[in-house]
Hints:
Mean pLDDT: 94
Radius of gyration: 24 Å
Number of strands: 19
Largest sheet: 6 strands, mixed
Structural class: alpha/beta
Low-confidence stretches: 1-14
Strand content: 15-25%
Distance between the termini: 35 Å
Strand order of the largest sheet: 1-2-6-3-7-17
Amino acid sequence: MRVLLGILAASALCAQTPPQQEGRDILQELIGIDTTDSHGDNTRAAQAVAARFRAVGFPAGDVRVLVPEGFPRKGGVVVRLHGTGAARPVLFLGHLDVVEALRSDWSLDPFRLTEQDGYYYGRGTSDMKGDAAVLIETFLRLKREGYRPSRDLIAALTADEEGGTPNGAEWLVQNHRDLIDAQFCINLDGGGGHIKNGKRLFMAVQAAEKVFLTFQLEVKNPGGHSSRPSRDNAIYRLAAGLVRLSQFDFPVRLFDVTRTSFERAAPLYPGQLGDDMKRAIEQDPAVISRLSALPPWNAQLRTTCVATMLSGGHAENALPQTADAVVNCRLLPVDTQTEVEKTLVRVMADPQIHLTVMTPAKPVAYKPMNPQVLAAVTAAATKIWPGMPVIPGMTTGASDGIYLISAGIPTYGVSGVFTDEDDNRNHGRDERILVQSFRDAIDFEYALAREVGK
């Protein structure tokens, strides 16, 4: 009888869908659910994820679909894998929402997963339904195996990281802190592997991130008839100020995280780029000039501010009475909103250009890299990619990590997905992810969960 039961159990195990295939199925389901802020349904995606968790045996009480009151489309899901309680829980964080995507802009249907030429295409493949599918598959796999970690492992997949109301991570902190309280958080919406010229270089762990800050610039004018133009033109004034901004660079300010990142990554880049990264700390003008010409590295060196929206005038035959622009800034953690605002006023050099804050900065105090997290990531990465360097760094974009850090839960960005440095399509047309990168990430995330669960 025992032999028969063993054969049946082995047959059932073999009949299970392989993790990479199941991960693809999950990704296909998620991509097929529109979760944009304008008319998507994040709750529907959360419910689909919850159904998968319940199907493998997670108790109903450990799978929570949480929907903010008054926002029926903005739900998220939280699942808990219980451990022995020998240590405090670890939270894995991600989001299910995506930025807008118009079918007319894309070569393919953005809300249908398409596999083509070694890539998965679809809105959210890289930001970040690919990582979400990896995380979901990891928890399904651990549950099926009956794995019991030393601590509870929690996965939270939320809404509105990309914009909208309410932000899911912030809402969880304010309303369901008990469900996500943890010793630290691993945010899959940060960090990740770097590919250059087809070669995997290193895995980055987000130890800091830039701070989001947006200003509105406005010029007002009495206007008049367009047949009698004046040199005092609202559009021209604003345009002149924006040109000055385009020619301005904030000062270089390396701090411990970026300094370490440049030093450790430099040997991995051949030629001039590697030499310049190594010498960035010296701030030699020629070195800084070359690095500043490369957008990814320029963003690591300094705070940046860039015009992202522009409008002006009210009629084709009238002088403009108003001209407006939106300027988005990404602050280094060591810079402040006050400093940046004063700098912009100085750069505009025109008292008629009025500057107001649209989205204030939400600065967070970053902490030194947690050795336990770095060791776990390194161990997991070594299992999948032997000898792969793991380097702490700063993410230039914003993430939901700020809400966790502000609530006292240290958060580190760790994605197992490798992306080509010269082909980052996040938020863009024909967003895609390498099929092999997705498959490898499934094995990495599983190994990482077991490392932190020891």
